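anyone seen this seq b4? input:
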Amino acid sequence: MSHRANEAMRIALGIVAGENEVAIVLTNGAVHLLDDDTDDLVDGDDIARYRASLRKLDIPFHVDDRAIPKGPEWNGEGHRIIPATPDAIARLMSSAERFIVF
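predicted toks r here
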């Protein structure tokens, strides 16, 4: 995973801090942003810190329901997850005023 994942979480946190509504959608390999161990990810320490801040703000993660990992080492921190079908993700994006894709 590239540094873009870290940047996406940082930007989302900044937008939320400005009291704007944000939807974070994780698909494919991006679901690993919620892995318990982020040490092997680029900027893993920053990802863990941003993720903790998003959790405190109760920002949910919309996760492609086909990509949700099975096992106890995923989302051990208990972030709020909204499983989403590809159609649900498309509806979410089409209803947005603006969006950023990383």
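The first helix runs from residue 4 to 17. The beta strands are 24-26, 61-64, 81-84. kinda curious what u guys think
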